[in-house]
Amino acid sequence: MTTVEAPRDGRRYEVVDGRLLITGAQPPAHHAAVIALMVVLKQACPPDLLVSVGSFAFRPTPHTTLRPDLLVCPRNYSATQPPVLAVEVLSPSTRTTDVVLKRTLYETHHIPSYWLLDPTTQELTILQLTPTGYTCQAVVQPEETFHATHPFPVDLTPAALTG
Questions:
Q1: Alpha-carbon distance values, 93 to 8, 26, 29 (Å)
Q2: H-helix or E-strand containing 29?
Q3: Which of 26, 28, 35, 159 can pair with 142 through a Cys bridge, CB separation 3.0 to 4.6 Å?
Q4: Quick one: 89 exposed, middle or buried, by C-beta within 10 A (0-12, 13-18, 19+)?
Q5: Is 63 helix (H, G, I), strand (E, B) or coil?
């Protein structure tokens, strides 16, 4: 199988059931939130896991390739295995895709944790996979601190990630 890299033009290229999804370049607040969350997660990450920003894809089927803004996966990650955590940072152009389409896809393909970080409202939504689908574990408000236990223990305060 040959892998073709997407052009490095600031856009994100994903494939869902054979259809190409292109997300335009994101605003600075989006990138700042991704980097801030990456730093917090990397500091708490155990040695058997990796925190990745945009460099790893998740390919649950031959016709679907997803690139979360941030993912946490085992060091021996294979793109066909679900990562342990997928994170999407919401923006006006990605909100519906992230909240509806990607939530459904990540749930269907058994990603244990899915987080949505909204830089506009400074809210962090934590979803955990259960036998019946994703359950909302918390909607963390800007100044609240949430102690996540999965995929590893870490304290998260949305205002610190998005401010």
A1: 19, 8, 13
A2: helix 28-44
A3: 159
A4: buried
A5: coil
The Cα 52–Cα 71 span in angstroms is: 5
The whole model's pTM is what?
Answer: 0.89
For the record, the structure tokens of 79 come out as: 């793109």
Tokens of 12: 């994100």
Distance, CA of 155 to CA of 147 (rounded, Å): 4
**Token pair 């036998």 in the structure block, residue:** 131
Q: Which residues contact 158 (CB under 8 A, 6 or more apart)?
A: 117, 118, 122, 123, 124, 140, 141, 142, 144
Cα–Cα distance measured from residue 113 to residue 45, given in angstroms and rounded to the nearest whole number: 15
CA 102, 55, 142, 126 torsion: positive or negative? positive
